[in-house]
Design goal:
249 residues, Arc Repressor Mutant, subunit A, Beta-Lactamase, 2 domains, six-stranded antiparallel sheet, 10 helices, 48% helix
Length: 249
């Protein structure tokens, strides 16, 4: 019974990652015989966990999975999920960790954790930062789709200069943003976007420190912030899609 449950959960996790898969690909990916894979998929389909796309076509998650996901999402509070991660970042980096959400044309701080240092960077909840020259704002911008960025540019009169566009592309490729003394000459920061279950950016995470300490370490701290933001996104139900080149067929 436990083995069947494990295999069933493995199928659901695999389909969730790939969005849709043929049963043969499920069997190959999980090391199951075709007969076992078809039997398990049929049971999951009967219970509403999977749906077939046409006769013999790929399967995708069904209404039972959607209902469970919706219930899980409703029970999650962004700040409650983020606070333990902020504390971990402070312990790992020795610098201030922040959580901010977009509001109009700015990012608004909603949580902050500070190290036990005499000198550290502080930003009180409720204070704001602009989009274009802060790690928090850039983290949010780099996670937007081109059409969304265009809409924001028009609505907020945001000047997306060629230089900023190039920076956002570079940051998007590596998964984290930076601000090296651009907003505040005395500090350096790195950030990363937080996504909800639909993949839309809903917040951003950052680590900020006094420039003399942080600047030499920013390439080390940035990936930590990226990975921390990914953990929060996963808690909100976000599953990064598998790149098309790696999709099972």
């Amino acid at each position: 019974m436990t083995g069947a449950l494990d295999r069933g959960l493995g199928i659901l996790q695999l389909v969730a990652r790939h969005r849709r898969l043929p049963v043969a690909a499920i069997a190959d990916a999980l090391g199951l015989s075709r007969a076992t894979a078809y039997r398990l998929v049929e049971r999951l389909r009967d219970e509403g966990w999977l749906i077939s796309e046409g006769h013999g076509g790929p399967v995708r998650l069904g209404p039972a999975a959607a209902q469970l996901a919706a219930a899980a999402i409703e029970s999650v509070n962004l700040r409650d999920v983020a606070i333990p991660v902020l504390r971990e970042l402070v312990a790992e980096t020795g610098e201030t960790a922040n959580l901010a959400v977009p509001n109009g044309t700015e990012m608004v701080f909603v949580a902050r954790e500070q190290p036990l240092r005499t000198v550290s960077v502080a930003a009180h909840p409720g204070s704001t930062r602009p989009f274009h020259n802060t790690s928090l704002g850039r983290a949010y911008l780099m996670a937007l789709r081109p059409a969304q960025l265009d809409e924001l540019r028009v609505a907020a009169d945001l000047a997306v200069t060629p230089e900023l566009a190039a920076k956002l592309e570079e940051m998007r490729e590596r998964g984290w943003s930076e601000d090296r003394r651009e907003f505040d000459p005395s500090s350096c920061c790195c950030g990363a976007p937080i996504r909800d279950h639909t993949g839309e950016p809903v917040a951003a995470l950052s680590v900020a420190g006094v420039a003399e300490r942080m600047d030499p370490r920013i390439d080390e701290v940035g990936p930590r912030v990226r990975d921390a933001a990914a953990r929060i996104s996963a808690s909100l139900g976000f599953l990064p899609p598998v790149p098309s080149g790696r999709r099972q067929s």
